[in-house]
Amino acid sequence: MRQTIALVFAFLLAASAYAHAGHHHVFGTVKQLRGDALLVHTKEGTDATVALTKATLYKRGDAAATRADLVEGVRVVIDMTTDGKTAETVKIGTK
Amino acid sequence: MVGGIAVVGSLLVHGISTREEPTHAEVAIARMLRHFAVPAKLRAMKNPIAVSPAALQEAREHFADHCAQCHGNDGRGQTEMGRSLDPKAPDMTLAETQDLSDGELFAIIRNGVRLTGMPGWAGDHTVADDWKLVLFIRHVPHMTKEEAESMKALNPVSPMEMREQQEERDFLNGGGAHE
Asked: Which residues 6+ apart lie within 8 Å of B123 measured at CB?
């Protein structure tokens, strides 16, 4: 029985890791914030526009941040919502 | 007989996939079976543990560690795993869950639900653990987004996720390649 439970957990963890790998993140530098549209120059060298919503959370380290912290040149890592359409969390770093 | 043939025919044509929404009949039958699977005496039980910040915190930590992978920290079931189950993990803020009695929620946590992804935890949890989880489920509709976000620190982290988190920290602190 214990072996069965261990196998089920191993499967769930593997499935979780795989699922997380498909979760979309955007690494980049803020170029412009216009309304709810955040233009980011990604680390891959392309530009991407990410939609912000009222539900989007902003963090700097473990502390809360605000949309006003999204100034040009600041590095961000954006966790997209599971449908990939809007930003769930914007983590703000150094300039 | 005709119904049985129709069901078998449908399975042969469409196969068995958890990606499709269950039919109303499947949902109704599953809920009825779940209802009857809980002994009447247990169904009528009230939570013997009073709400307190300490009990809720304990339950929050437990939920984040054991349950959130499918149910999500906010209990809405919007996780990769929760959405892929059949039936899908429920949105526990809604009446379908909140209208269940304390005893029914307790029984579901303890015994699981057959033919779903919900395991029974009686072998691993204490009785008190599960009553505290019932407290947490009652709290879920009142949770703030910030509270759910803070629970992320309590979620299990795989080695791959640890690497991703380190990569994020390095990038935010100015490291890593950036064109």
From this structure: none
The amino acid occupying position A16 is: S
**CB distance A36 to A51 below 8 Å:** yes
Instruction: Give the pairing type, strands A37-42 and A25-34.
Output: antiparallel
Instruction: For residues A25 and B47, give the distance between their C-alpha atoms in angstroms, rounded to a whole number.
Output: 41
pTM, two decimals, is 0.65
Distance of residue A40 Cα from the nearest chain B Cα, in angstroms: 12
Which residues lie across from A86 on neighbouring strands?
Answer: A51
DSSP of A21-53: HTS-EEEEEEEEEETTEEEEEETTS-EEEEE--
B80 and A20 within 8 Å at the Cβ level: the answer is: yes
Question: Nearest CB to A91: which of B119, B172, B179?
Answer: B172
- What confidence tens digit (pLDDT) does each residue in A27-79 have? 999 999 999 999 999 999 999 999 999 989 999 987 889 999 999 999 999 99
